[in-house]
UniProtKB/TrEMBL annotation:
A Pfam family of this chain: ABC_tran
Alphabetical list of PANTHER family matching this protein: ABC TRANSPORTER ATP-BINDING PROTEIN, HEMIN IMPORT ATP-BINDING PROTEIN HMUV
Protein name as catalogued: Iron complex transport system ATP-binding protein
TM segment ranges: none
Organism field: Puniceibacterium sediminis
Keyword presence, Ligase: no
Keyword set includes Ion transport: no
Gene3D superfamilies xrefs: P-loop containing nucleotide triphosphate hydrolases (3.40.50.300)
Length: 263
């Protein structure tokens, strides 16, 4: 029995127009981080929302042998944590109260004697302990992203889905958040799937990459197999080199616009 996530024939249509075209994801194992990349309009957010059960996609989504599409919305939400690109923040809650509320809604979280201690520890892990008593409505965009990430992580879901969690962060914070996220997934054996536009972050931190275009997966697997000059030309229409630096990390160097047509 698979312990990770797979999808079979995942499709989604809107107004009789198919948006996702039979998505088959290879098994994504627990404790790993998968980056969804692709140009604007490729279907990354739509796929993430379909995995979360927020859109009425057809097909099979299997997590540890359980078909998530057969579960009630509540049971699915207990297994899956989803963080959208932007979140509505209540003006009446402090950051700490918001994280405590998320923790108490998690399985085994209600009445937790150490709930406050755990919530404070999560804020400290993300470097925002100083924001604990600040109202959500008073946060900057980047601070809201970090607070939302704390709320999502504290629930300890089996599957973590994050839509551009670093888009409002400065480069230092982006690096810190991706490092923390990768470490948390590894230690908790949680499976993470994150939408990223920054190819450098994807190459640096993702164990696997899924490249999408026009609602289809055109490549999936280890970063060095997915992000190549050929796939970048096809998906992004750019001429680029993919090279390893002296520390062994892959980097993309864009040299210009490619006139290759999508297949």
């Amino acid at each position: 029995m698979s312990s990770g996530l797979t999808t079979q024939g995942l499709r989604l249509s809107r107004k009789r127009v198919e948006i996702l075209h039979g998505i088959d994801l290879p098994e994504l194992p627990p404790g790993s981080l998968t980056a969804l990349i692709g140009p604007n309009g490729a279907g990354k957010t739509t796929l993430l929302q379909s995995l979360a059960g927020l859109l009425p996609a057809t097909g099979r989504v299997s997590l540890a042998g359980t078909d998530l599409t057969a579960l009630s919305r509540r049971d699915r939400a207990l297994r899956v944590g989803y963080m959208p690109q932007s979140t509505a923040q209540s003006a009446e809650l402090s950051v700490l109260d918001a994280v405590l509320t998320a923790l108490r809604a998690a399985p085994g979280g209600a009445g937790h004697d150490d709930a406050r201690k755990e919530a404070v520890a999560m804020l400290a892990r993300l470097g925002i302990a100083d924001l604990a008593l600040k109202l959500l409505s008073r946060l900057s965009g980047g601070q809201r992203q970090l607070a939302g990430l704390a709320q999502t992580l504290i629930r300890r879901p089996a599957l973590l889905l994050l839509d551009e969690p670093t888009s409002a962060l400065d480069p230092r914070r982006q690096f810190e958040v991706m490092e923390i996220l990768h470490d948390l997934l590894t230690t908790s054996q949680t499976l993470g799937i994150v939408v990223l536009h920054d190819l450098e972050l994807a190459l640096r931190w993702a164990d696997r990459i899924v490249l999408m275009q026009d609602g289809r997966v055109i490549a999936a697997g280890p970063p060095e197999e997915v992000v190549t000059p050929e796939t970048l030309a096809r998906a992004y229409q750019v001429k680029a080199r993919v090279e390893r630096c002296s520390r062994g990390f892959l980097h993309v160097h864009a040299d210009g616009v490619s006139h290759a047509h999508a297949l």
